[in-house]
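[retry 2/3] Pyridoxamine 5'-phosphate oxidase family protein: previous attempt timed out, resubmitting with same input.
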Amino acid sequence: MDTATPVNATIRQHPERAASAEAGDFLAAGTVAHVGFQVDGQPYVIPFSYQYDSSAPDRLYLHGGHSSHTLRALAAGAAVCVTVTMVDGLVYSRTALNHSMNYRSVVCFGRAQPIEDPEQKQAVFARMIERYFPGRTAGEHYAPATEAQLRATALLAVTIESMTAKARRGAPTGPLDGEPEALGTCGVVPL
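[retry 2/3] Pyridoxamine 5'-phosphate oxidase family protein: success.
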């Protein structure tokens, strides 16, 4: 199992799109985390729902069944890369090369530890439900997890050791996009 220390994240391609100050906002707004790890030389990237709260900016939570290959590998110490991306628009240009998309993205590197305490698990799951479904509360809108359900669900806290964020916003930037008389069309399709 790979347990190498994660590399320090540096934005090399389009460094002008760096958005480090917004990394926590991107994690709080996202809905799907792609979780990357390696076992015996084989890389995996698996989508997960996740919990992130800006009051603990160095941590996010992943959950699933105890039989999950991903959660077992992470609990055993595998380095993890978690990526959250939101696509805000498709950017079309008058030149083929300058088609793009508007997005917000954050990449986190770290390690995970299992959470076993039932009260802590219950609290994390309640916050996660509230994050995905604002206004829903246990005991009013749904029955809280039972002790058996908590035991049956693995919960990992990923400690974020380093992260980077990047965003592209705005109109197309091709060399002909500012010329209304040029061939073709340009603009943004909001998503």
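[retry 2/3] Pyridoxamine 5'-phosphate oxidase family protein: The first helix runs from residue 23 to 29.
[retry 2/3] clearing retry counter.
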